[in-house]
Amino acid sequence: MKKENLEKLRKTYPFNLLSEEEFAEMTKEAKLLQFKKNEFLFHEDEEEIELYFLIEGLAKNILHKTNGEQFSVRYYYPGDIVGLMIMLAGGKMTFSVLALQNCETIKFKKSALLQVMTNNKAFSEIVLEGIGERMKTLYNEITRERNEEETENIPLFRTRVDAIMNKALIISANAPLVQAAKRLRDETETGLVVVDHNNHLLGTLTQRDLLQAIVTDQLNLCVKDVMNKNPYQAQYDSFCYDILSYFKDDHVDFIPITKQDKVIGVLTAESFLQLQDSNYIHMSHSVHHSHSVSQLKKLASVYNPIFINFVEELLSQNTYAYDVCELISNYNDKIHRQVIRLALKEMKQEGYGTPPINYCFIVMGSQGRKEQGFSTDQDNGFILDDYEHLSNKGEIETFFRIFAEKINRGLLTCGFPLCTGGIMAKEKKWRRSLNEWVKEVARWVRETDAEEIRNFTIFIDYRPIFGDFSLATKLREETTETIRKGKILQLLLMKDTIRFRVPLNPFGMITTSGKSKSINLKKAAIMQIVNGIRIFSIKNGIKDENTINRLNKLKKIEAFHPRDVNNAKTALHILMSLRLQNNVAQLRNGEDLSNELSLETMDKEEKKKLKEALSIAKRLQHMSELSFARKRGL
């Protein structure tokens, strides 16, 4: 075998724990072997199973059941030892391993590895512990999912609207009003949904609208003449607590539910009778009806004791922490939207008028991913409709500069600190037309450097929350493929994500810093998972910005094994729980918010869970580093 391959292996964990003699003994009969896509590294029918170190490619482990069924147990990524779990099972499990991509491996003699494990206790413990932790995490995840499926009574804060929505009654925009009235009378429903021939939402027609038409003697008109052309609507995967708050407004009778821009159902007030009420609904209603930023500040997440109690209660009921973070992000979205509405009102009062062109306000970073905790700053910007060709270009730029300054100032008042890196709408570089954004993304892909890459990682997780959402959709559509092909960009993203190493030493012990013996949960752990998943998503052209959704899509396209997806979700739940609990304690004690967690405040069980999560984060960081190296290898 080539000397350079052995040298790479020698530097790789856990082989770097071996003495020179032990490493030489284990590799003296090692061979470099290559397997093509869909070729077996080994099959269960083979009499002797050897061990392989995967240098390049992707392989799949297959379990063969006695009834002839087979299913995948895990994937192997560069840096994994293939066949070790089978060897330790002593032939009691029948496995095969299939190459999903062209693979390059180093093949070891099983007897040589066993001899080294016998002589080197530290090496043996690391190998065995890694297998044990992976199996334990998988078992816990499966058990938890099964228990929740059997016993959970879908409370308000965990239910998505598609679980309780009703069938939509559809009508054409050109139908006579009399026909619509008869339809509502016969079906005894609250309203009708008006759609085009592709089932895209055009508007709604309610009993209230029909009564207005009768009073004004307009029954000879068509549906399109009196329908509400800008109704409230919701995505099928929205949480119920977000949508229920709309029904506090007396003008909302029902809400169409859409999926991929097509109507799939409706919600009425009666849809929610099976679900419990919540303080969140009252807070959301109060946010929407705040008349000043000072009034809004009292409702903001970090200043609102009711909201803090609500989050703490959810955590105490073992709600997934990433779902709680989504709740916090959704609530912060409401604060942002009201700040924008108040800024628009000020612009008009001060003589600037209404926005001169279409625009979309976007949030980025953790809020863009819907993964916010209490300790967060502003990351936002504007996508403007193309305006450079217009004669009032200067006036447009002035309007949005002042508008953005008002928004950022209002958000600061509501507890969102200004971004120290200047990633805010008031900065010109974060306030661009659609065409200029497309050009900027292309420039990032083509010539970005290590300093700019951090701005890109925050930007790429953007999400629209106010204005013309189609501008954000167009930007995503026009840039996804460009980013997917940016191999140098992906390398820089990988290098950036390994700036902060997961604080676990080679022996699996947590390493801390400072007198308080703390770790930064965000930089040292959460972001290692988030960044790694982002890189794999970019590579596979996934357009979603949320980490959990990205994981689900990576599993669906078989870029990630279900076991790795479940482990990543488990780690995020543990780490985000600790972060939120730490933030709540800081808010209760009047301390400055931070992501620093002191191990001295943790009990034995909490430290055990933290170590488990850090182990998963370290594996994901290692996967990213190996899979996106300039030359695929060790």
TrEMBL record:
Source species: Anaerobacillus arseniciselenatis
Protein origin, superkingdom: Bacteria
Ranges where the CBS domain occurs: 164-221
GO MF terms, alphabetically ordered: [protein-PII] uridylyltransferase activity
CDD domains reported for this sequence: CAP_ED (cd00038), CBS_pair_SF (cd02205), NT_GlnE_GlnD_like (cd05401)
Domain Cyclic nucleotide-binding: 14-117
Listed name of the protein: Cyclic nucleotide-binding protein
Keywords assigned: Activator, CBS domain, Repeat
